[in-house]
Design goal:
Keywords: Isomerase. It is a single chain. The protein has 289 residues and is of the alpha/beta class. The protein has 12 helices and 10 strands. It has an 8-stranded parallel beta barrel, surrounded by 5 helices. Strand 1 (2-6), helix 1 (17-27) and strand 2 (31-35) form a beta-alpha-beta unit. The two termini are 20 Å apart. 39% of the residues are buried.
């Protein structure tokens, strides 16, 4: 599994992309997920791009932004093209957005149809760039719980439409992340990993709080110190060598927390691989060591 940091973790820090890249590489990460606003601001320095980042041994797996699905169709298309060009600059194969801004249970049939149609339309745009469009599992969207997310995948019905699987938000909706991952299968193209001390603290991840410099950070905890059992989830995910995930940390002490979480994730994956027999070897009669 390839693991990235998110530049959104450093939204209130005086830290350059050069410093982030050097630190991410030294810490053992394989990539940097760019927040949309950061990608747009970095466009003024064209020498910073995917090739430059590759020299650091890193990639940009995804640019995370918020496409205006309810805007004029021409504006939406323009914003999508701009985002695809940024993704091309950074050699990113995925862009992320939210499936609307209203809870699935409060969205009318007509509104739902409009969002699905808009997602399908802009998938045509991203496909022309060879880029997948990912909708994130997130509260107050059409991907806020299992049934609605699975239905959305069917409604959009596009080969370049996929899911950014935020395990905590799946759990927040009352769904089992391991079971949901099995049901969604190849529709998942990326994972966001974060945790919370107790369910009552989930409000700390509401956008108005997360993006505020003085927002409440109480309840944001390292990956293996929270209410969601990541040991179980990651043990299951470790069997997928092509999985890509980002450690999405919004709290304080970014560098220390991200580094320690990476070490713990690597330990879980290594333990799972050590404890799981090589299925291919048994099937072919070989033993690999």
């Amino acid at each position: 599994m390839r693991l990235s940091i998110c530049t959104i973790s450093f939204r209130h820090h005086l830290m350059s992309i050069d410093e982030m890249a050097a630190w991410a590489r030294s810490a053992g990460f394989q990539g940097i997920e760019l927040w949309g606003v950061h990608a747009r601001n970095l466009a003024s320095g064209p020498e910073r791009n995917g090739a430059w980042l590759a020299d650091h041994g890193l990639t940009v797996p995804m640019i995370s932004d918020y496409l205006p699905l309810d805007a004029d169709a021409r504006l939406l298309r323009q914003r999508t093209i701009e985002l695809c060009n940024l993704a091309r600059t950074w050699k990113a194969s995925k862009i992320r957005t939210f499936a609307g801004g209203t809870a699935s249970g409060l969205t009318s049939a007509g509104e739902r149809r409009l969002i699905a149609d808009r997602l399908r339309d802009i998938c045509d745009v991203t496909a022309s760039y060879g880029i997948h469009l990912l909708a994130e599992t997130h509260p107050n969207t059409l991907a806020d719980e299992a049934a609605s997310t699975l239905r959305l995948i069917e409604e959009v019905d596009h080969p370049f439409f996929a899911i950014n699987f935020d395990a905590l938000h799946v759990w927040e909706a009352g769904d089992d992340p391991v079971a949901m991952r099995e049901r969604m299968g190849s529709a998942i193209r990326h994972y966001h990993l974060k945790n919370v001390r107790q369910r009552k603290h989930l409000t700390v991840f509401e956008p108005a709080n997360v993006y505020a410099p003085g927002g409440d950070r109480n309840g944001m905890v390292p990956l293996f110190e929270g209410a969601l059992d990541y040991s179980h989830f990651l043990s299951d995910l470790a069997e997928d060598p092509d999985a890509e995930a980002s450690l999405e940390w919004f709290g304080n002490n970014c560098l220390e927390t991200l580094r320690s979480d990476l070490i713990e994730v690597q330990r879980v994956i290594a333990r799972q691989r050590r404890d799981t027999p090589n299925r291919h070897s048994f099937e072919t009669g070989r033993l690999d060591f």
